[in-house]
């Protein structure tokens, strides 16, 4: 029972999260046999694996250079039938521009000439800070809740490169929601897919950055850094859904909410990216215990279940929402104030969203339009859906539009814009 169906994957993930948050809701998505959701499958640990141990020191080289790689056979029969799959460790840059070793997955559709294929840099959504939640490990187990989207791209003849993001290793220090880290991680896993000789992907392949939720933010951050950081990449478009663009607005909306675990994950991510924030020094005893447990064991399910309705005042002696050093980090990792993006963008969101505030996404699209970006903005009705499911639904509702937008960019069609 594997997560290869969009209906099944999102129905079950949403159902598990809703139960965990004690939110009563009627199942509204159709589907067949029950499947295992990410939070549940992640409980069964994979054996210890030296592949993910980061080298110290980080080897010299260029971003995207391969440190190590291995071909893998994913747990899902569908995945094995669709693609040849590699796990890679590659050079990248952290939020402060220093070399770092990241891991990820490259999937190349079978039965195609790899040299002719486009590459989708897919930014995965929130998995959780614990090592067991790492996207490449979830793919290997057949338990990634977004796998159906990846499989859809593979069926369309698109190679897919998927980063684990920075800090996903056995002693995790993930940089969740830190855009200055997410962008290079996504750009460089695409580079790695092209540099790994076994894939036979072309250095001149057309590239699209795509993702939803955290992954939608990663896609836009990749677009922001690419023109200067990776000008050789032939990027033709960006598809970004459920984008968490404005850090302060998101933090204020999440604080004390059923989804407050995502706020604490983001605060820990910023602290890992910017150690000078010294989050440890402002945590109370309950906060120290909660953050340690979160880093050790929390995937998406636990972020909802174990940290729901908590406020920063429950865990902090001072407020990371208002202090000057934190505000500086928020500003540095907020989208929209300026833009370096040079390609067309499709941005989409739910009309309501209990996890990633819909109003800040609307503001972001207007800011991008004001900067002259060629952007298509679309919303999907979610007002009749319960909390959490209102965030999950648009990735399914918007998949056909997102896929069509990608196909048009790859075909070289002129992009339109509905900016006013």
From TrEMBL:
Name listed for the protein in its UniProt record: Lipase
Stretches of the chain forming a coiled coil according to its record: none
Region described as Disordered: spans on this chain: 39-80
InterPro entries: AB_hydrolase_fold (IPR029058), Lipase_secreted (IPR005152)
Cited PANTHER family: LIPASE 5, PTHR34853
Example GO molecular function: triacylglycerol lipase activity
GO terms classed as biological process: lipid catabolic process
Superkingdom of the source species: Bacteria
């Amino acid at each position: 029972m594997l997560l290869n169906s969009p209906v099944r994957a999102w129905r079950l993930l949403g159902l598990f999260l809703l139960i965990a948050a004690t939110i009563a809701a009627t199942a509204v998505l159709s589907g067949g046999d029950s499947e295992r959701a990410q939070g549940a499958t992640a409980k069964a640990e994979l054996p210890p694996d030296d592949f993910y141990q980061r080298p110290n020191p980080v080897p010299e080289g260029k971003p995207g250079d391969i440190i190590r790689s291995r071909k893998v056979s994913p747990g899902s029969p569908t995945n094995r039938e669709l693609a040849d799959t590699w796990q890679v460790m590659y050079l990248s840059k952290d939020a402060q521009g220093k070399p770092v070793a990241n891991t990820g997955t490259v999937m190349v559709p079978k039965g195609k000439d790899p040299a002719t294929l486009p590459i989708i840099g897919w930014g995965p959504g929130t998995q959780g800070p614990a090592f067991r939640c790492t996207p490449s490990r979830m793919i290997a187990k057949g338990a990634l809740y977004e796998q159906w989207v990846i499989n859809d791209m593979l069926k369309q003849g698109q190679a897919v490169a998927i980063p684990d993001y920075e800090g996903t290793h056995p002693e995790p220090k993930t940089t969740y929601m830190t855009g200055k880290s997410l962008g290079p991680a996504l750009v460089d896993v695409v580079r790695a897919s092209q540099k790994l000789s076994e894939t036979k992907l072309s250095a001149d392949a057309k590239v699209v950055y795509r993702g939803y939720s955290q992954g939608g933010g990663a896609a836009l951050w990749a677009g922001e850094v690419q023109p200067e950081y990776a000008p050789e990449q032939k990027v033709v478009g960006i598809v970004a859904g459920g984008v968490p663009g404005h850090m302060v607005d998101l933090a204020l909306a999440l604080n004390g909410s059923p989804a407050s675990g995502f706020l604490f994950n983001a605060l820990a991510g910023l602290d890992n990216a910017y150690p000078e924030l010294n989050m440890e020094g402002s945590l109370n005893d309950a906060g120290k215990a909660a953050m340690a447990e979160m880093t050790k064991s929390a995937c998406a399910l636990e972020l909802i279940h174990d940290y729901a309705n908590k406020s920063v005042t429950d865990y902090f002696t001072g407020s990371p929402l208002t202090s000057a050093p934190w505000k500086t980090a928020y500003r540095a990792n907020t989208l929209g104030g300026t833009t370096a993006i040079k390609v067309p963008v499709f941005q989409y969101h739910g009309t309501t969203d209990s996890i990633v505030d819909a109003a800040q996404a609307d503001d972001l699209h207007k800011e991008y339009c004001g900067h002259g970006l060629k952007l298509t903005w679309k919303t999907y009705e979610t007002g009749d859906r319960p909390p959490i499911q209102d965030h999950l639904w648009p990735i399914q509702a918007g998949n056909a539009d997102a896929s069509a937008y990608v196909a048009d960019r790859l075909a070289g069609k002129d992009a339109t814009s509905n900016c006013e």
